[in-house]
Amino acid sequence: MNHFFNSGSSWYPFRWFIVIATGLTLWMSYTDYSGGRVFTYSGNQQRGYYGGPTGHK
Amino acid sequence: MGKVTGIYQCPACSRTVTYRSGNTRLIVCSCGQALNRLESDDLIIKSVSIIQDHNDWLRVGASGVFEKRKFEVLGRFRCWLDESVYNYWTIYFYDNSLAILAEGYGMYAIMQRLTPEKTLEPEALKGLKMLGSIPLLQEEDCFLQRKDSCWKYEIEGEVWMPECSDQFPIFGLSSTRGRHFEILEFLPNYMVVYELHYRDYKSLKLTGFNEGPTTSKNVSCPSCHNTIVVKTWPYAQSCACTNCGTRLAFKHGPEFQSAGKDKLNANRLSIPLGATGIVKDISYEVIGYTLKQDSTPEHSRWSEYVLYNRAEGYAFLSEYAGNWLYAREQGNYPILPEEDPVAIYYKGEQFQLYNAYSIQVIDAAGEFPFNIYDDTTALSSEFIAPPRMWIYEKSTAEGINWFTAEHQDHKQLAAAFSAELPPKTEMGVLEPSGYMSLNRLLKVTLIAVAVLVGIHLLIGFGKQNKVLLQQDVTLKDSVASTTFVTSKFDLTKWHSNLQFDINAPVDNSWLDMSASLVNNSTGQEYHVEQLVQYYHGYDDGESWNEGSPTETAYLTSIPAGTYFLRIEADKDTTGNSSWNGLRQFSLTVTSDVPSHRNLFIFLGLLLLWPIISFIRLRATEKRRWGGSKYSPYKA
Predict the structure, then answer these.
(1) What is the pLDDT of residues B79-123, one digit of tens each?
(2) Lower Cβ count inside 10 Å, N or C end of chain A?
C-alpha cells in the first residue's frame, strides 16, 4: 500500500507533519467547539461552589 | 482459400502450415523454411534468417493482457541494430486484431499501427537532426529521439511485417505530451508509423514463458585465449576479458572484435560476477563490472555493476563513495523543454540538473548491453529529486537513452548479495535522509493551513453569539464597591464560553470587575476578574499613556445549564483620582463566541515543523550539492 508511511511514497518525508497537523486540527476543533481557549495561564478563571451572596463556600 | 481457413501447404516440404491471422505475412514452417504469403494468396519460399537461439523469456505461444484485452504471441522479427538487438513480437488479440510487442533490455511496449494526422515526408524525416521536430500530429510537435539502423533481421513463428528490405532504418520520436512513436522504413520511402505504449513487465501479466535453460556464447579472448562466457547473448553486445583486460565489441558481427584494452585491469569488484541477489523484488545476477571516470575537472571515478534478470532485463548498480544507486532504462521519460535544460519535469515533479559529463571506461569485466566502449563522445546529464534521478545519455549519432536511478540502502544491498561493500565516506547524491521537495513542503504547509483555517471558520459560523447582558452599570458615589445579580439564563450548548466586554471611562484610575457565573442547579461557580485601568501624563517633555479603558475577559468551556451572574465592581478611591470621578461603566456579556486567538496559536504551532524543516533542508541540500557546479546554493 503506497500510503505516506511507506518509504516509497513521495509523501513519506512529510509523514510526521501530516500526523502533527491532524493532531493540531483535532485539538483546535475540540477547543473551538467546546468554547475553550488554549494556553490561558492567567488563572483568572476560577472554579468553586457558590455560598450565597456573602461569599464562597 | 487459405485466406479463409488460414491453412496452406508448405511449398518446400508439403506439410500443412496454418496462419492464425488473416493479416500476417511471414511464417516459419516446421521444416525450418520461411514462407511468404502474397497478396494473391500464394505461399512462396522467403529467403530470410530464422532465429536459432531460444534464450528469451518470452516465446511463441505466451499470452498476456494489454488494456484488459488478452493476447497471444504468434511470432517475432528480431532486429539487429548497431549496438543492440530488439524483438518485435507479433501479438494476436482475441478480437482478431494485431499489434507488436516491442521488447528488449527490460523494456516492453505495445506498438499499434497509426495513420499520421499529417502527411509524413520520408526525406524530411531522414534529414532530421536529433531532437529536430517533424509534423506528425495536428496539435503536438514530435521530436526525433533516436535513429537506428537495422542491419539484419531474423524471424520466428507467424510474423506481422510488411515486405521489407534486408536492412532498414528505425526512427524513434516523442511528442510534447509524452506520446512515443516508432517509424520503420521497411522499404525505401515506405514508412510505417506505430505508437508505442510502454508498460512494465508485471502489468502485461505475461504467462507461458520459456523456462528452459539458456545457451551462452563462448568468446575466445584474442590476446590471452581465455574463454569469456557471454550469458546474455545476443543482447550483450560488448564484453571484457577478466584475465587480461582485452575489450571486445560485436560491431555487426559475425564475431566479437577487439576494442582495445583496459587502462587499469584491477577488477576491484565489491560484488563478484555471478553473484545473485534481490533488488526491488527482482532476482538479479551480476554479469558485468566497469570502473568509469567522468570528464569533469575532478575526474571522479565510480563503479558500475550490470545486473540481469531474464524477464526484467538489465539494470545497473552504481557505487560512489560508498553510496549506491539502482538504475534502469526507461521508455517513458520526461520531454526536454530545451536542448540543455537545467531542470526537467516528470509527472509534476521537478528534477534539477546535478551533473553533466562524458564517460570513459577505465576497467571492465564481464558482459554489457550495448557497446560501452564507444560512448566517449556521448554526454550524460543527471537530474535529481532525491531519492530519484533521471539520467539521459545523448549521442549525436544514436540519440537519447533515458534511465532512472534511485538510492539503494548500503546495508540492504550488502545483505542481498552477501557481499562486503565499501564504507560510506560522504553524503550520497540521492541520499533520501533529510530530503524533501521544497515545492511539496510549501504545498503541504498551505494545505494544512487551509484546513486549519477552514475548520476554525466552519465552527465559528455555528456559534450562537448570544448577548446575555448589555448594561450600563451605575457606580455608587458613596462606596467603592458595587454588586448586582443578573436574572437567570440558559446555556444550551454542550459546552460554551462567555465573553465580558467592559468599557469604563477610567482616567488615571482603575476599575476592577469580578464576575461569578453560578449554576442555579448545582451551585458550581465560575469566577473571572478583570482590571480596567488607564493612566497618562507628561514627563520630561514627553507624553505617555498606559492601559486601556476597554478590556475583555472570558469564562471558557462552561457546561450547559441554567446560570446567573453575580457582578462586583470596585473602583479606584485613592491617589489623584476623584472619589466621584467614575460613575458608571458599560458591560456586555455574550455567550458562545468564536476565539480567533485559538486559530493564531494553532497556526503558530503548525508552522513550527515546516520552518524547522526548511532550515534543516537548506543545510542538508548545501552538503548534497557541494560536489555540483550546478548547485543552486553557490553564490
Answers:
(1) 999 889 999 999 999 999 999 999 999 999 999 999 888 888 888
(2) N
Q: Best of A4, A12, A45 to disrupt the B interface by mutation (most B CBs within 10 Å)?
A: A45
What type of residue is B567?
I
Q: Residue B52: is it exposed, middle or buried by C-beta count within 10 angstroms (0-12/13-18/19+)?
A: exposed
| Residues constituting chain B | 635
| Orientation of helix B596-624 relative to helix B438-461, angle to 10° | 170
Contact assignment for A44 to B451 by CB distance below 8 Å: no
Inter-CA distances, B534 with B179, B482, B515, B544, B601, Å = 74, 20, 21, 11, 28
Chain A residue numbers touching B594 (CB-CB < 8 A): 32
Q: pLDDT tens-digit profile of B496-547?
A: 999 999 999 988 889 999 999 999 999 999 999 999 999 999 988 899 999 9
CB within 8 Å: B527 and A46: yes
Chain B residue numbers with beta carbons less than 8 Å from the beta carbon of A20 are 606, 609
| Cβ neighbours for B188, distance < 8 A, ≥ 6 positions apart | B165
Is A21 within 8 Å of B451 when comparing Cβ atoms? Answer: yes
Neighbours of B174 (CB within 10 A): 26
Question: Would you say the C-alpha torsion B264, B268, B271, B274 has a positive or negative sign?
Answer: positive
What is the complex's ipTM, to 2 decimals? Answer: 0.83
Residue type, B611: I
Pairing type for strands B542-548 and B466-474 reads unpaired
Residue of A nearest to B520 (CA): A50
Q: What is the distance between the alpha carbons of residues A34 and B492, in angstroms, rounded to a whole number?
A: 12
- The closest of B532, B520, B596 to B562, measured between CA atoms, is B520
Please judge whether A28 and B598 are an interchain contact, meaning their C-beta atoms are less than 8 angstroms apart: yes
Residues 6+ apart with CB under 8 A from B414: B420, B421
**A24/B601 touch (CB, cutoff 8 Å), yes or no:** no
Burial B120-151 (b: 16+ CB within 10 A, else e): beeeebeebebeeebebbeebebbbbbbbebe
Is residue B588 within 8 A of residue B501, CB to CB? The reply is yes
